[in-house]
Amino acid sequence: MEKAEGESTCRTSSGSIVSSDEDLMMNVFSWLPVKVLSRFRCVCKQWSMLISDPYFVSTHQGRATQDLNITKLICMVDQDGLIRVRSIEEKEERKITHDLIRPNYPNRFPWKYRYAKIVGRTCNGLICLEDCRLTLVCNPATRNTVVIPRGKERRYSYLQGLGFCSSSNEFKVVRLYRRSKDYGCELFTVFQRGVHPLQYLRSWRHVGNFPYHIYYPSERIMCHVKGRVYWIIEPLASSFSDIILSLDLELEKFKIVSCPEHWPEDVRYDEHVNLTELGGELSIVLRTLESWQIWVLKDYTNSIWSKEYQIKKNISDCPSLYDVKVAGIRRGRLLLIINFITLCYYDPRNNSLEVVIREIYPSSFPWRVDTYDESPVIPF
């Protein structure tokens, strides 16, 4: 937001002018839950425009992600098309709440047939839903959805997810499709904040082909970090260190990211390696015989990694750890999903686990659980 010297008005990133009173109102609104803001949109046109402004949305998201006292988990229910959100509030004492959300599904989206599922990971408050025929982008906090066309390559198998380009304020569905042994990639622009949807082209665009094999297992889905998306690939015979393919959503160009130096020789990329976002950086979770190692990408240009954490398997008073998903970091402790169902804090300083929730979602498929930050964004 830009404010000229000596003036009592300011200009938002969408170009609209607001007074100093509205500036104060925007600051107050940015601390409110999205559920409250959704009701405030109906009060008057001025409030609706203020809450929809890109600067306000960015400010609200920034405060939501920086609040380390609240952690939200999101999951698709296996029936009735419901989405579950669990909130863990850490203040004077721990408080856990549970919400069931039914998005505003279009009539032709067959959620009642139990085919709907979350694909990819959450992205700035939005999720991508699909069934065997349709794809949706949804904001669970506002329940708004938008239908995504099937695309030109719908005849072939594909893997998709959602990413965000901050330079253009665009959400993009990124879809990899396979024909025979080759892979291609296409993009669909879902939403450009501050721009009316009729002002830009809303169709799939082909961005390139590549001769790599992409691993499809559920935990090795697309990972979005800072305007780039990443996939694990099978190393080529000429270079066994090249294991990650990235796509810059602004430049729409691919790049190979090499694995860390001194990588274990017995690593199986289809079983031992997962990608995740940790503290705003791309991270690799590597499973070895003794532990889970967490490597963080420090230099994207030169593929320089640093081993930041190590989760040992011989934790006292803890059941066998046959699966560990790193969901985030809170106050120096790692947030882990253990054996698909148990949420824990792991303190690397003393190699200890604290159980937060023993059964996150007992009726859900384990790979559908993800961390989630609310956003007032409404997809078109």
From TrEMBL:
<feature type="domain" description="F-box associated beta-propeller type 3">
    <location>
        <begin position="75"/>
        <end position="358"/>
    </location>
</feature>
<dbReference type="InterPro" id="IPR013187">
    <property type="entry name" value="F-box-assoc_dom_typ3"/>
</dbReference>
<dbReference type="Pfam" id="PF00646">
    <property type="entry name" value="F-box"/>
</dbReference>
<dbReference type="Pfam" id="PF08268">
    <property type="entry name" value="FBA_3"/>
</dbReference>
<dbReference type="InterPro" id="IPR001810">
    <property type="entry name" value="F-box_dom"/>
</dbReference>
<protein>
    <recommendedName>
        <fullName>F-box domain-containing protein</fullName>
    </recommendedName>
</protein>
<feature type="domain" description="F-box">
    <location>
        <begin position="22"/>
        <end position="56"/>
    </location>
</feature>
<dbReference type="InterPro" id="IPR017451">
    <property type="entry name" value="F-box-assoc_interact_dom"/>
</dbReference>
<dbReference type="InterPro" id="IPR036047">
    <property type="entry name" value="F-box-like_dom_sf"/>
</dbReference>
